[in-house]
Amino acid sequence: MQLIIRPFLSTDAPQIAHLLKRNFLEINSKDYPIEQMKQLAAEYTPEKIIEQAAYAHTYVAESAGEVIGTGTICPFWDSQTESIILSLFVLPEFLGQGIGSAIMNHIEHDAFYLRAKRIEIPASRTAKKFYLRLGYQIKNNEQTEDENGYLRMEKRV
Length: 157
Prior knowledge:
Layout: E1 4-7, H1 13-27, H2 34-43, H3 46-53, E2 57-63, E3 66-75, E4 82-90, H4 99-107, H5 111-114, E5 118-123, H6 128-133, E6 137-138, E7 151-156
Parallel strand pairs: 4-5
Antiparallel strand pairs: 1-2, 2-3, 3-4, 5-7, 6-7
Helix pairs in contact: 1-2, 1-3
C-alpha cells in the first residue's frame, strides 16, 4: 500500500467526518456509551473540521485517493511552548497497519510540535496503549479520566 501523508484540504472534510463517525461508532463505542459516541459523531461535521483546521494543522493519510487517516495538532490554549494533539484516527479496516504511527511521525515534524516543550493528548481509553508505546505518559501520574472519559497524557520534548 502506498501511503501519502499531506496537509488537509477543505475538500477532505466530508471524508474525515465519515472517518471520525466510523471510529466513534465502531471502535470507541466498545469503551464508551453508544449515546456519547453518537453525539460526537453528530458534532464532527465537515464544517466543524474545516473550522478546526483554521487554527490547527491537520494532516491526512491517503491511499489510492482515499482518506484513511487523519491527525491534528495545535497550540495548547495559545501557548508558544505547549501543543495538543486534538485527534488521530484511522479507518477501522486499516488499524494495526502502522498508519497511526506514520501520522504521528509526520505530526512530530510539524512546527507546533517542534516548538513545544510539552505535548498533551486527550487520549481515549481505546488509544491509551498506542500512546504509551509512543512515549506518552499519564499527565501528573493521575489515572482519573476527565469529564468526557479521556485520559490526559503528555510527552515532554
